[in-house]
Design goal:
The protein contains 14 helices and no strands. With 316 residues, it is mostly helical. Helix 2 packs antiparallel against helix 8. The longest helix is centred in the middle third of the chain and has 35 residues. It is globular, with a radius of gyration of 20 Å.
Length: 316
């Protein structure tokens, strides 16, 4: 039981549930209602293929968490000594085994799903995701900004992969309804993918500030170490402003459509916590302050993803 609990901590099980929930909600709340609203369109991504696509995403993400902890072992001994799993509960060679097994299984499933859908994107791009997670853990995480951008792009890919699954590359004789469907899904994929990118970028910078002590000890050149905490703070705050401004534009659009429940939810569950977190980041001084800010950013991400349910409501 202790070994199973340690393994779930190693693969960040709550984060994997979040990935699965994000992809399920995007399909259930956005993709499915639009395929049903366009009866002449071709529904490509079925529930069964969605399930396999979620499994692939979860396996690849789990492998990424494992390899990150594998290469961060010395740093985590400083930053998170009470949360170590590798070498304490799970041996390093088993960590590598699980990384390879999960990565290869995720890639195999990706190519199988891509083959069923006739999509040339899903398999190769998930291979790229595995490689990026490896090089992030070995190299890019230790450099200013580039590692943060990579993780943020991969977070956005969690949503965008569903758009890639619906994109009919090899369907030449497609009905006009299919083009309308694809444009509609693309709009929402960009909206939620962009949201995921911004909020993940903020969180990655906040986590870098939180983990400065161990990172500095082992030669990392993350943004707060290379450019200083004040610059990193301003960077995160600017992106929070961009996020708030984007949400305000979305609120104005939703108000024109009289989607009042969506407007109220976004205002209280997403925009208000964004303002609160902005203030937390602005005044943060100690490691516990940055830990609190990081948790609030994660809460904003969850609230934003749950807002997908309103698009199911308004299109039912």
């Amino acid at each position: 039981m202790q070994l199973a609990s340690a393994f779930l901590r190693l693969i960040r099980f709550p984060n994997l549930v979040f990935i699965a929930l994000t992809q399920f909600l995007f399909y259930f709340s956005i993709v499915l209602p639009r395929t049903e609203a366009h009866p002449d369109s071709i529904q490509r991504l079925t529930w069964g293929l969605l399930g396999w696509l979620i499994v692939a995403s979860v396996f690849i993400a789990a492998a990424g968490y494992i390899i990150n902890d594998y290469f961060d072992l010395n740093i985590d001994r400083v930053n998170k000594p009470g949360r170590l799993v590798i070498d304490k509960r799970i041996r390093r060679r088993w960590a590598i085994f699980w990384h390879l097994a999960l990565s290869l299984t995720g890639i195999a499933i990706s190519f199988a799903v891509g083959g069923k859908l006739g999509s040339p994107f899903i398999g190769p791009l998930n291979v790229a995701a595995v490689l990026l997670l490896w090089f992030y853990s070995t190299t890019f995480k230790k450099q200013a900004l580039i590692g943060n951008v990579i993780i943020s792009l991969l977070t956005a890919w969690v949503v965008l992969v569903l758009y890639a699954a619906e994109l009919p590359i090899y369907v030449t004789d497609q009905p006009a309804e299919q083009a309308v469907l694809i444009r509609d899904i693309f709009k929402y994929a960009v909206m939620y993918g962009g949201f995921a990118f911004i909020i993940s970028l903020v969180r990655e910078v906040v986590k870098d500030i939180e983990d400065m002590q161990g990172d500095a000890k082992y030669g990392c050149r993350t943004m707060p170490i290379a450019w200083g905490v004040p610059v990193s703070r301003v960077f995160a705050l600017v992106w929070m402003v961009v996020l708030f401004g984007s949400l305000a534009v979305l609120e104005a659009y939703a108000a024109q459509l009289q989607w009042w429940l969506f407007v109220a939810y976004t205002a209280f569950a997403v925009m208000a916590p964004t303002v609160w977190t902005f203030q937390r980041i602005r005044v943060a001084r100690s490691t516990p302050d940055w830990t609190v800010a990081s948790r609030w950013v994660k809460g904003i991400m969850l609230a934003g993803i749950l807002s997908m349910l309103f698009f199911k409501w308004y299109h039912s």
